[in-house]
Amino acid sequence: MSTIFNQKIDLIQLLRQIPDEHILKIATKSKVDHYAKVLNGRLMFYLLLSGILRTDKLSQRGLADSFSSPLFRTLFNFKGKATISHSSISDRLSTMNTGFFRECYETIYHIFSSLYSTREIENLCLQRVDSTLVSEACNCLQQGISCGNLYGKKKMMKYTINFDGMFASFATIHSGDRESNESVVLPQNVMGHFQKVKDHSSVYILDRGQNSAEAFKAMKSDEGLLFVGRLTEKRKLLVVEDLKKESDVFTDGDLLEDKLVKLYKRDEKLNKEGRKTVTSTLADETFRVIRFKPQGKREILLITNCLEPTAQTIARIYRRRWDIEVFFRFIKQELNFRHFLSMNENGIQIVMYMTLITAMLVMIYKRENNIGYTTAVRRMGIELENLIMAIIVIESGGDLNKTQLRPPV
Description:
single chain; alpha+beta; 11 strands
């Protein structure tokens, strides 16, 4: 990857990459400030951004305290209402136009991704696609996927994210019970992102959660969409053609199979008695499957519609799927993504976009300064406080009586 940054960077340099006029333009276009007296879109954007960076556990009361603090008000030159209640933040999260935050996320992703080359293997852009669940133990979610037994039911929200190796490139949120099925949500994200960008150099990487023959067929029918997935080792297949050659080089273990196949799919029907019957029928599409055994590990069976790359390349592509698991762990542990700031789906969606925006800043800061995730978040929080203090000193000329701050008595 290459960037415009040739030396270590700080938070100010990163924030300068997000022109304020972009955010104001999106706010006007989305009408997010319609009827907003205090918490306009820009203010909520930066309130959430600073809250995610500076608090161990994001909360509505914590955001209300941050809003009322002289430091936040000085940083954003806000002269309005001195305090707000946590219920005001809750109401605003429940009603704000999520389109404002989605467009901010997409605009910032476009700015930052243009600074980095995303070609990884064989000049291909790899899109890892997976889902993560966040549950609420107190069962206060207004909507959500049901989980648990009859006596301990709680609800979860499901986030399906595309990760390009540096940033989250596409994200959706799911709250219906049907969407607990990975074979429903993962193909939706793959095809949704591909139809948006139409990038024929991208390869989408999925794990075994997506195993539907119909979904593989739907993805393959989208011309130019390439994917690499994984099947269970005992999946029933019909071999159409053997592609393996004696000259094939495979250094990631033992290459056992490289074939064109047709998949068997499950068909569920009701018989005359009204009972459900399950039959296995042959799908009409052909796919490439590669079976190999890494040294000291179990067999892996991959499925793809990429016919030109070698089996070795396909295996290397799939190995990069694990990157999204690291990304999920990062946003949950370091950016509070395992908690709910709002119990309303509208607010949950807003926080998702703001978390992904914050993650972009942290990922760049981490990479350019060659440090870990935890260190990056901590240092960015410190730099944010230093930035506020610098503004205060400049505005006051060293006299705190000229600012909203007061020296201790």
